[in-house]
Amino acid sequence: MKHNREREVPLERVVLFTDAVVAIAITLLALDLRLELPENHSLTFHDLLEPWRNYLAFALSFIIIANFWKTHHSIFTYTHKMNETLLAINIGWLFFIVALPFSASVLSSHFNSTPATFLYSLNIFLLSVLQNFMWDYAEVREGFIDREKLSKEEDKKNRTMFNLDMLNGLVAMMVSFFSPLVAFLLLSFKIPTFLIITFYIGNRRRRILAKREAKKDK
Predict the structure, then answer these.
(1) Which of 60, 100, 114, 193 lies at a C-alpha separation of 20 to 30 Å from 108?
(2) Cα–Cα distance between 81 and 78 in angstroms, integer?
(3) CB burial class (10 A; 0-12, 13-18, 19+) of residue 42?
(4) Number of folded domains in the chain?
């Protein structure tokens, strides 16, 4: 049984299939962009601005899917092997990619609503969890990651970004119960991620400067 679960799967087919599904999902987002006007109504600029919630949900979802696809591409730049377990994780990730247009539609119809914002944040959180699972699974399996391409610095950077993506989604989920608008802004600008990265970079610079000063004193 174990042998069947760990059977190798053609990597190229999985990556091509994934790209196709992501392309369809990102296209489906546009279906929610429509102007509902009565017959014989002259179009005005107010009519164009009326569905602004749809525009916001579309723009954020487009960027989110594009970023997740970019991260997926990065993962499989270093991963050159696929088995059925990794395939299952990848299919789970695709499930939530395809669910995002639905979450975006609910959010645009019920903007500033706690259930709608929570659903949207949960969708993004689960995407980031499965993204993390993908990397962790491949990284600890022998022969899955091309170690010649992947430096320790790049590995550390990937792990940090994946964890911060999860944190961002989790914080947005919790904040949605108190302020759906703030949760939406957190998802839009990745504020928790930005603050932690800023703190990390600042702390690292201070340590580098301290080491330089110590060398000068010697």
Answers:
(1) 193
(2) 9
(3) exposed
(4) 1
